[in-house]
Design a protein that fits this description.
By secondary structure, the chain is mainly alpha-helical. It contains twelve helices and five strands. The protein is elongated and about 85 Å long.
């Protein structure tokens, strides 16, 4: 209540201005509202049905070829089944990592260009609800594509050589990888004005996590090489006696750089899957290679021991698991991407990308 000038009569100033929600205030109703809205827009598009159908046909055809190749090259059914499962899983992980960025990398800047984002920012939805709703919608779409491939993974599972625990663990970690990819795409969508730029940055980031880090590890082998002097036992040609001598040679100390491999989705999924030492499937091969890198070169070389390979395998298995570190790093990427997205969705914004429209 206040007084008008000269009359002394109190007048009503009207209701107080509504204050918008805080930046980080989150309610399930707000997140759910935006998620449903985003999903309805995707489902209404005929392109979504075409993408899902083409995705199913592609994975089905490739799975059939992989099964034929596995059954032809392997004599034992369990070995062929494990080979098929590991190959199909890595194929699905690769294809999903290529498709998932398209589900989120244009979410924010696309709405901003169309003038839709400003309308949503003027509602009572908080920036955190906007970010989480868009992320959940993109992740749900990615999970739909992943769910389409589950029958083919289950087919490979039924071929034998794969335990139920391996099936569950790899499925959960693949879904987690898709969530990280969607979050990265959403972050670049909020940071850049052009959808082509955000999509390109997302693909580059996904490629760096998937194959870029292993490539950096390989290129870094020259840096961690050093001349080591160690004892070597061996049998000379034509002799049954074991000889011992000191040898100096250059060896790569991969125990210093193995951690570069940990954030790769392929390493996370492979290392977390229970190993099958009797089967040469892709998951077990990657798992053994990463733990061999973590172990580094042996202190001494004993070529006379008949159990040399078994002893080395036991040392590899005694190494701590690599995948928890990878999940932790990717989890930080996930959280960091969400935080950046929320800060970029604050209204009024302190700065907009050049060329952006407000409404």
């Amino acid at each position: 209540m206040s007084e008008t000038l000269g009359t002394g009569r109190p007048v009503d100033d009207g209701p107080p201005l509504l204050r918008g929600p805080g930046t980080w205030s989150v309610t399930w109703g707000g997140v759910r509202t935006l998620t449903v809205l985003e999903l309805r827009q995707r489902i209404r598009s005929a392109r979504w049905v075409i993408v899902v159908g083409f995705w199913a046909l592609t994975v089905g055809a490739l799975s059939s070829l992989i099964r034929w190749a596995a059954m032809t090259s392997q004599t034992e059914r369990d070995s062929a089944g494990a080979l098929m499962y590991g190959t199909v899983l890595l194929l699905v992980l690769s294809l999903a990592s290529l498709v998932s960025p398209a589900l989120s990398a244009t979410s924010v800047n696309g709405d901003r260009s169309a003038g839709v984002l400003a309308i949503m920012q003027s509602t009572l939805l908080s920036p955190a609800e906007l970010a989480l709703g868009k992320l959940l919608a993109a992740w749900t779409s990615a999970l739909v594509l992943f769910a389409v491939t589950l029958p083919f993974l289950f087919w490979a599972f039924l071929e034998g050589g794969t335990s139920g625990g391996r099936f569950v663990i790899t499925t959960v970690l693949t879904a987690f990888t898709l969530l990280v990819v969607c979050a990265v795409g959403l972050m670049f969508s909020a940071l850049t004005a052009r959808t082509s730029t955000s999509a390109a940055l997302t693909y580059l980031t996904v490629a760096f996590l998937g194959v870029g880090l292993p490539l950096v590890f390989v290129l870094g082998l020259a840096i961690v090489r050093s001349d080591d002097t160690f004892r070597q036992q061996y049998r000379a040609y034509g002799s049954d006696e074991c000889q011992l001598e000191l040898v100096t040679e250059s060896r790569a100390h991969t125990e210093k750089t193995w951690w570069l491999l940990a954030p790769s989705p392929y390493v996370i999924v492979s290392d977390a899957a229970p190993a099958r030492h009797d089967l040469g499937d892709p998951l077990s091969i990657i798992r053994s290679a990463v733990r061999e890198a973590r172990l580094g070169p042996p202190i001494d070389e004993d070529y006379c021991s008949e159990s040399r390979d078994e002893d080395r395998a036991a040392e590899r298995d005694a190494q701590p698991a690599v995948w928890p570190l990878g999940v932790a790093v990717d989890g930080l990427v996930l959280v960091g991407s969400v935080v950046v997205t929320v800060r970029r969705l604050r209204s009024p914004s302190r700065a907009l990308p050049r060329g952006s429209r407000v409404a």
